[in-house]
Q: What sequence folds into this?
């Protein structure tokens, strides 16, 4: 397939890889075609890294950490680079809001609003340089006269990012890693490599030292080489729970550090006193984002039996009225899925839901007015058994399941009856009831009357939704190793 003429990207080096501060020629001529999710036409082609290229990228990152200046810079100096990167990416935000809809199917108007928040991670982590306790005096408890807790960079980081929201995942991994003093090999998804290339061009523009950030696009086989390489001290991945299990098992073999931001099957618990109309419009609207291709989507709607039909009807009316279409059309509320295989996956789950006895109340097919692109209708199932596949497995598409419960306690039990624990929400006008239910939910985030996710605080999951947290001060800790230093006396900076 050839690249279409309507591609809107100013990326300059898509036939190369960014390694050691240079745009290098790959060791093979293999390329990835990146298809536009709404037209099914290839709009971008990028170099595919193979084993030799991944080895070269890891070597560059290892050399930059061990022998380069980056690790020895002050946090304030590294923060200066982060601010420059932030400014450079912001200056090219229009490119992100053109690439992201094509790669992943997000509506462009939504991308324009969401992208600045993702990019702001670089600025937020730069701000932490001023007051984060990278070194603290402590009182020794087993000898010695003066102690320090020192938080040092973990080393070389392998960062694996997904296709659904690449810039957001890139920023919340690369920004804290760089502030900590780590060097990074960033591995982009073949379906959505554009934002990685853009960041590499910005890194080159701001003069980031060679090897501090290396950017490659690779398939699963080559990506696993990054995970296995003993020169990589830490892995961080956003992806499916299946991918996380694989990464964790390999890291376990060599005791490598890892942060896993994985899947979800998040519950919205709608209490008896909730405003049903508000809950329905809120949940339907939230599921429009990225066509439901969001790990923290609230896709299980748990409500008491006597309000189940009312909510199912309201939710079906709200979700069924969503305008599906071209993500570049200002009237569109929900775009396509990212790829044909993703649409096949979602359609397979819809068929399974029907087979297992759930009641389809809206959607379930493809929009009749769209003959190109990987579109699926907004879909709602009612009377869903929480043990069914559509209630237990991550669908990653615009499919909502309404699950009846006996009472509040049963609703909490159902919400927790999953291997996941990434996100949740409680719908009630009573703040105290919301707080009480939140205390019972086994979830990394719990919102109130809305879909909530705050990368400025912390994001991550319980159970098989992952290990560790990203965003905010909590998101810096995984890139630091704690060292205890015990001295006979205080060093100069601590003496009066």
A:
């Amino acid at each position: 397939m050839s690249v279409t003429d309507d591609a809107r990207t100013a990326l300059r080096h898509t036939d190369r890889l960014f390694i050691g501060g240079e745009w290098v020629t790959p060791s093979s001529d293999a390329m990835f075609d990146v298809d536009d999710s709404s037209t099914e036409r290839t709009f971008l082609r990028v170099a595919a890294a193979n084993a030799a290229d991944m080895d070269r990228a890891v070597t560059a990152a290892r050399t930059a950490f061990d022998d380069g200046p980056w690790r020895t810079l002050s946090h304030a100096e590294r923060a200066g680079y982060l601010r420059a990167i932030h400014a450079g990416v912001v200056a090219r935000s229009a490119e992100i809001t053109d690439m992201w809809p094509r790669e992943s199917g997000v509506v462009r108007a939504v991308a324009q609003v969401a992208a600045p928040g993702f990019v702001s991670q670089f600025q937020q982590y730069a701000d932490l340089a001023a007051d984060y306790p990278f070194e603290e005096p402590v009182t020794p408890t087993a000898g010695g006269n003066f102690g320090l807790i020192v938080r040092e960079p973990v080393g070389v980081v392998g960062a694996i990012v997904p296709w659904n929201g690449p810039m957001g995942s890139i920023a919340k991994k690369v920004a804290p890693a760089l502030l900590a003093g780590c060097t990074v090999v960033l591995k982009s998804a073949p379906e959505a490599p554009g934002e990685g290339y853009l960041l590499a061009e910005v890194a080159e523009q701001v003069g980031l030292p060679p090897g501090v950030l290396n950017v490659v696009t690779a398939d699963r086989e080559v990506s696993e080489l990054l995970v296995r390489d003993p020169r990589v001290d830490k892995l961080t991945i956003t992806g499916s729970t299946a991918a996380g299990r694989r990464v964790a098992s390999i890291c376990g073999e060599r005791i490598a550090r890892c942060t896993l931001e994985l899947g979800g099957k998040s519950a919205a618990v709608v209490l008896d006193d909730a405003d049903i109309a508000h809950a329905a419009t809120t949940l339907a609207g939230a599921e429009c984002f990225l066509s439901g291709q969001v790990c923290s989507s609230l896709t299980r709607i748990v409500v008491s039996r006597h309000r189940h039909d009312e909510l199912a009807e309201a939710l079906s009316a709200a979700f069924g009225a969503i305008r599906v279409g071209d993500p570049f059309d200002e009237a569109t509320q929900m775009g396509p899925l990212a790829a044909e295989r993703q649409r096949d996956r979602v359609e397979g789950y819809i068929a399974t839901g029907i087979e297992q006895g759930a009641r389809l109340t809206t959607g379930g097919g493809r929009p009749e007015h769209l003959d190109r692109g990987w579109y699926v209708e907004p879909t709602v199932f009612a009377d869903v058994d929480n043990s069914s596949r559509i209630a237990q497995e991550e669908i990653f598409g615009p499919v909502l399941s309404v699950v009846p419960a006996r009472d509040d306690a049963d609703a909490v039990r159902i919400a927790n009856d999953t291997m996941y624990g990434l996100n949740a929400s409680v719908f009630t006008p009573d703040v105290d009831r919301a707080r009480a239910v939140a205390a019972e939910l086994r979830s990394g985030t719990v919102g109130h009357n809305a879909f909530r996710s705050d990368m400025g605080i912390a994001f991550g999951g319980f159970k098989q939704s992952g290990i560790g947290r990203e965003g905010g001060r909590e998101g810096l800790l995984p890139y630091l190793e704690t060292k205890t230093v015990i001295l006979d006396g205080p060093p100069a900076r601590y003496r009066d």
About this structure: The chain has 14 helices and 20 strands. The longest strand covers residues 146-153. The chain has a mean pLDDT of 96.
